[in-house]
Write a structure and sequence with these properties.
The protein is an alpha/beta fold. The protein has 13 helices and 12 strands. It has helices at 2-25, 40-53, 55-58, 70-78, 89-97, 151-162, 178-186, 202-210, 223-229, 267-279, 281-285, 296-299, 310-318, and strands at residues 27-32, 60-65, 84-88, 111-119, 122-127, 142-144, 172-174, 192-196, 213-215, 234-238, 250-254, 256-262. Helix 2 packs across helix 10 (267-279), helix 7 packs parallel to helix 8 (202-210) and helix 10 packs parallel to helix 13 (310-318). The chain is globular and about 60 Å long.
Length: 322
């Protein structure tokens, strides 16, 4: 009996040592996303789910972090505190040029594009009865323009500039997170919210399901001027019936969501992440409605301003995508 106990204890010790050694061999990566009601957070979760599915084979373990969004993710990757991030395509360009939200920063030459994901049309949500039928009508109104460090804030600045208004022209320039704006709209604390996300997204669904919210058709708000001055954006459509109370198609515009990394991210780790998504592409597309229309060919070229990292390029060549 005692011999058996001694053997069991020794076996447990050996097993524990093996587990510790295995843990030491693992590489832990984190993907920065956005607010939990947007599409970035479930996008990061979908990627991590596919990476972790085969973690015993490649020893890479993936986790997701809810963050302030595109600008935050880019800066935090640059500082070495995140491995990957979901970032708007226009924010990539601004970071590389040291422009807009990165004005005063050194141009980020080591930023790398891994792949693009879904388009992100601008959702301008307006509470019924506010008299807002175009962006110009927002003067004197309470409007959520997004939290500092988010890609939405960068888009709000572009939208307002194209319509010759500034945050100072608003009655209130709120800086709420995406998870806070639906309640603020329905409680009457703000009149409108400028918000960019994939289709459909939780924040817009929450607002339109809870109270009388209309999506503003941006053909009323100098859409052609925006597209002429900002080549990183494209015209987009929010289908009628996607959100409660909004039965007609809504014309919009926006960037694409992309996955980025730093040039110093190990090539083998980038390869593992890309392989996990593209080898399980049908499963990936089922993980969120925003992914339904994705094609591999578009994901390796659309909306990618920085160069590809070698790990991604290696996989795309092996898969015949380059």
């Amino acid at each position: 009996m005692f011999a058996h106990l001694k053997f069991t204890a020794a076996a447990a010790a050996v097993a524990a040592m093996g587990t510790a050694a295995q843990a030491q061999d693992q590489t832990f990566i984190t993907i920065g996303t956005g607010g939990v009601t947007g599409v970035y957070y479930p996008t990061g979760g979908a990627i991590c789910r596919l990476v972790n599915k085969d973690r015993k084979e490649h020893n890479v373990r993936c986790s997701v972090e809810s963050t302030g969004g595109s600008v935050y993710n880019t800066r935090t990757i640059r500082n070495g505190e995140l491995d990957f991030g979901v970032v708007q395509s226009d924010v990539q360009t601004a970071a590389m040029e040291g422009a807009r939200a990165f004005d005063g920063d050194e141009p980020y030459g080591d930023l790398r594009s891994v792949f693009s994901i879904h388009p992100e049309p601008l959702h301008v949500m307006v509470r019924a009865g506010t008299g807002i039928s175009s962006v110009a009508d927002m003067k004197g109104k309470a409007v959520n323009i997004g939290n500092p460090g988010s890609g939405t804030r960068a888009l709000a600045d572009v939208l307002m500039a194209a319509n010759e208004i500034t945050p100072g022209d608003l009655g209130l320039a709120a800086e709420l997170k995406s998870s806070e704006q639906a309640a603020a709209l329905c409680d009457g604390n703000i009149d409108a919210a400028i918000w960019a996300a994939g289709l459909p997204n939780g924040s817009t669904m929450e607002a339109t399901s809870t109270c009388d919210i209309e999506l503003l058709d941006l053909s009323t708000s100098n859409l052609e001027r925006v597209l002429e001055q900002n080549k990183a954006y494209a015209k987009a459509n929010i289908p009628g019936g996607m959100y409660p109370g909004n039965d007609s198609d809504v014309v919009s515009w926006g960037p694409k969501a992309t996955i980025v990394a730093d040039a110093n991210t190990p090539d083998e780790v980038v390869y593992v992440l890309v392989k996990a998504v593209f080898d399980n592409f049908d499963d990936f597309k089922k993980l969120h409605p925003a992914f339904g229309a994705l094609t591999k060919e578009e994901m390796v070229k659309d909306g990618l301003r920085p160069p590809l990292p070698p790990g991604a390029e290696k996989y795309y060549k092996e898969a015949g995508l380059m």
